Amino acid sequence: GQNIDQPTEMTATEGAIVQINCTYQTSGFNGLFWYQQHAGEAPTFLSYNVLDGLEEKGRFSSFLSRSKGYSYLLLKELQMKDSASYLCAVIDSNYQLIWGAGTKLIIKP
Amino acid sequence: GAVVSQHPSWVICKSGTSVKIECRSLDFQATTMFWYRQFPKQSLMLMATSNEGSKATYEQGVEKDKFLINHASLTLSTLTVTSAHPEDSSFYICSARVVGLDTEAFFGQGTRLTVV
Fold this sequence. Notes:
Radius of gyration of chain A: 13 Å
Shape of chain A: globular
Mean pLDDT of chain B: 89
Largest sheet of chain A: 6 strands, mixed
Number of strands of chain B: 11
Largest sheet of chain B: 7 strands, mixed
Distance between the termini of chain A: 40 Å
Strand content of chain A: over 45%
Helix content of chain A: under 10%
Number of strands of chain A: 11
Largest interface: A-B, 25 and 23 residues
Radius of gyration of chain B: 13 Å
Number of helices of chain B: 0
Number of helices of chain A: 0
Distance between the termini of chain B: 37 Å
Low-confidence stretches of chain B: none
Shape of chain B: globular
Structural class of chain B: mainly beta
Oligomer: heterodimer
Structural class of chain A: mainly beta
Order of helices and strands of chain A: EEEEEEEEEEE
């Protein structure tokens, strides 16, 4: 079966750095997305990785290792507004999007 | 990025009535649209996948006669919740992609349905 694993919840301090991990086992791989979702709102796109390595975009970076079936989202200089759920999603060999359950990130002052 | 418009943003209806939710891709043609349901503090749950001009594919456990999906054109899909009950109260979100390409999912803003 297809499976994407993320921690259910994480807590971090304002101004700090947090890394949210995502591991996947899917039938094929055509890319991995990270989305941010605030409570009561639709998810918004953060990043896309299809090749191994680190993609940096401002305070957010995303890393991919295809051989390990592993990705992480790195958030720097955390702000209170970063409190949200972070969803990992993989495109499989049929170009279907497989979603993780999301990681709820709680930022404390 | 591309825009997906979902309407209405919120709706309150009486138990037993039907509610229609529209999802439009405004500046691209979406070969496939997805309907999700999300309960508070839970992740997205895929309900069905709809392809333009064909019947929707429903996920296991989703009643196709209760959640009617129509995808009449490449820019419009509708979800109708028939004979709504309080347990149908949820956040419904549509998304659109051009499947077969490495494109992101573009989401509508979601519809908060409350059945009283």
